[in-house]
Write a structure and sequence with these properties.
alpha/beta, two-stranded antiparallel ribbon, 7 helices
């Protein structure tokens, strides 16, 4: 059964207008399915937290065959949401998911920069959607420690695509995440973190997964 709704969850300092979001929106449009792309930068990037992202997504979910496509930090969000809103989410697609986000050794910044973040209260991060640096409050880091995507319990059928040349997400951690979950199918690709070159290859698997072929 094809999904009633599909949500694309963008990554950190990205936007709903990313290359991958546009690609999936176009492919889904051919099957009369609209891709919903929440903007997690709203109301402002400075106050972003994972909890806010989860709540924002939850307020948009309805019962039915909902599929989540999550990229990078959006993949972390998809995993956490699949656990929290299990009855409302039917399938999950993860693109280079940051499964170890906020765990030791996998922070957004090295320890010395985390300490500076705590001292200053906010630090600038390059925001790809705006093409410039934007301040982000340390509450983003503090809140992230409350969440554990790697050990989340998700029952939904899940496709995972991970690049072997990814400098942001270690493919070995994604392999470890998938290994213990029989409902997760992992595809390792000769690509980087963006996975843009692999979009046609990914769609070959996503389309039948969504019941579109």
């Amino acid at each position: 059964m094809k999904p009633s709704r599909v949500f694309y969850l963008h990554g950190f300092a990205s936007s709903a207008k990313s290359t991958k979001a546009a690609y999936f929106a176009e492919r889904l449009r051919e099957h009369d399915i609209r891709l919903d792309c929440p903007d997690f930068n709203e109301p402002e990037f400075a106050t972003l937290t994972l909890t806010r992202m989860i709540d924002q997504l939850g307020s948009n979910l309805a019962n039915g065959a909902v599929t989540l496509i999550g990229s990078s930090l959006g993949g972390t969000l998809a995993i956490l949401a699949a656990q929290k809103f299990a009855s409302r989410i039917d399938r999950v697609v993860l693109l280079a998911p940051a499964v170890m986000f906020a765990k030791p050794g996998h922070h957004l910044l090295p320890p010395e920069r985390i300490e500076e973040w705590k001292r200053r209260g906010a630090l600038p991060f390059f925001h790809y959607a705006h093409g410039e640096e934007r301040l982000l409050n340390v509450s983003f880091h503090e809140d992230s420690l409350r969440h554990d995507a790697f050990n989340a319990v998700i029952q939904q059928p899940t496709l995972v695509f991970q690049g072997l040349r990814d400098a942001s997400v270690d493919h070995r951690t994604v392999e470890a995440f998938a290994r213990t979950r029989p409902n997760v199918t992992l595809s390792l690709l000769d690509d980087d973190h963006q996975l843009v070159a692999s979009l046609p290859r990914m769609w070959e698997s996503v389309a039948p997964f969504l019941g579109l072929e």
